[in-house]
Amino acid sequence: MRPSELISENAIAERVAALGAALSAEYRDAARPPLLVCVLKGGFVFLADLVRAIDVEVEVDFIGVSSYGAATSSSGEVRVTKDLEHAMEGRDVVIVEDIVDTGLTLAFLVDSFRRRGARSVRVVALLDKRGRRRVDVPVDFVGFEIGNRFVVGYGLDADERYRHLPYVGVLEEDHG
Ligand code: IMP
After folding, report:
1. β-sheet bridge partners, residue 122
2. How far apart are CA 37 and CA 122, in angstroms?
3. What are the tens digits of pLDDT across the range 94-133?
4. Whose CA is nearest to atom 8 of ligand 1?
């Protein structure tokens, strides 16, 4: 079944270009290139497009996380499945997220990077389900705010399917 389109490939490209310009402006005079940390797996398509829309030097790293019971537990246990290669000490870090839902994953990452000595931690997310937030965590740069729908495509999956779609879509069963 082909998910129906919610955000088109063109609309995504336009927003990613704007986000890239905003990040370039933010870090234009930085003493050291910011470290973009892509949150796997969902962030990989967004990161790939975003770095090409940025015209200042950046470094890139990847972190893998899986959240257990994020939807049902308030503790939001988050487990690191693949850790960073770079040291965080003194770095300006930009977390690159596909989507912020409850905020539990992001809150865990921001806290963890601060404790590891990052100089600053900012967040860029392609999609923001603000209405679902359970912890207050600032998202500095947002692509699109969306409602309470389960979305796939552009890196996002449903049981590992649909990550390759160039657009963001919803599954037909989701009448949310
Ligand atoms: P949070 O910790 O509840 O904010 O969840 C964030 C993570 O849940 C994202 O990085 C995604 O991996 C996953 N997620 C949340 N909403 C969706 C969705 O609508 N489609 C696909 N994955 C989602």
Report:
1. 94
2. 10
3. 999 999 999 999 999 999 999 999 999 999 999 999 999 9
4. 101
